[in-house]
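User: I'm putting together notes for a lab meeting next week and I want to include a structural view of one of the chains we've been expressing. I don't have a solved structure, so I'd like a prediction I can at least talk through. The sequence is below, exactly as it appears in our construct file.
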Amino acid sequence: MGSLVRNLAVAAVLSMAAASTIAQRWPARPIRWIVPYPPGGATEIHARLIADPLSKALGQPVVIDIRPGASGLVGSGIGAKSAPDGYTLVAGTSASHAINIAMLKVRPYDPVTDFKAIIVVSTHPNAVAVHPSLNVKNFKELLDYFKANPGAPYASAGPSSSGHLTGELLKLIAKVDITHVPYKGGGQATIDLIAGFVKVGFIDSSAALPFQKSGQIRVIAYSGLSRSAAQPDMPTISETLPGFDVSPWQVLFAPAGTPDAIVRRLNSEVAKILRLPQVKPRLEEMLSDQPEKNSPEDAAAFVRRELIKWQEVVAKAKIEVR
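Assistant: Thanks for the context. Below is the predicted structure for the 322-residue chain, given as structure tokens.
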């Protein structure tokens, strides 16, 4: 028993020494940043905003690697199985690391144990948008409309999207009977909302903003718990239904086992980049916020809370688990 304990202790020391050596030499080659969604979306835009200044700060290229598929599960799964050496980063989202995972019987990865959270890159609300022909000017009037029209449809970017779960949470809290109309992406949902084929949509707030300004759709509320700093005049659902909160997010992850020194270096560098004068205004244009406390531990706790929250919503709403 004594020799076994000594061997385990030696192995632990050698492992720590190896991790320390990797961290001291890091980075010595290009870093891969996996974006598990198609190009042109908010996840890729955020990644490219950060990648160039991060490359300069680290002295090595940060290369965006687009790996779409299965609502973020494919690329995230690749990241989870990558070497924990600081050369692979993953842009995880509320879909890939909370909502979709909550809906799966068999998980391709565990968002908590298979990853190390580095920093919360962005949180932003969904927009509650209606076609201008609908005589609804605020969220209370929308609830009245839903109650007077059982089964009324609402559009989202697709099954298990944050827009879909906005509708499911609304059904639970407000006790309304509404019908989900899933689209293949937020762009198509927004197009049909503008055309009036569907009268209500829970869609990405930054994507809705230009059409809101042009009057093609009417945004009546945001889904976050508190008002957006970039759009302080827009009320939230929670002002009518206290506690309501659906805030799609992005967290930068590394594979589990990545040395803490590397994770903390990345946290520090990305936190600085998010405040840069050439980056912060762009984030504000996309209605992106970051929490005040944003250490790796804070980010990890945030992901755990979100996963638990959506597991409870999926169970209570009796959403079919795949």
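A couple of points you could mention at the meeting. Strands lie at 31-35, 62-66, 88-93, 115-123, 126-130, 152-156, 178-182, 200-204, 218-222, 249-255. The first helix runs from residue 2 to 25.

User: Perfect, that's what I needed.
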